[in-house]
Specification:
mainly alpha; globular; 6 helices
């Protein structure tokens, strides 16, 4: 279920999606996603990386905290 939720989060922010509506929640979502990169599940880690890639431009525009964790 966690992998499906993370996949959905990335999917809704795809081109033509609603990134602007979810952007207000990214300060709390990005740390959660970064934490999920430590998951034991290969599928969760891969899906999380894909989802984080959807937010890469936003992450790069923030302070160094998110960027350093993302890289």
């Amino acid at each position: 279920m966690k992998e499906a939720a993370i996949l959905c989060m990335g999917s809704i922010c795809d081109e033509g999606g609603c990134l602007s509506q979810i952007e207000v929640h990214l300060p709390s979502l990005v740390p959660f996603l970064i934490q999920e990169l430590q998951s034991d599940s290969d599928l969760i880690r891969a899906t999380t990386l894909w989802t984080l890639s959807k937010f890469a431009s936003w992450i790069c525009q923030q302070d160094d905290t998110f960027f350093a964790q993302y890289v």
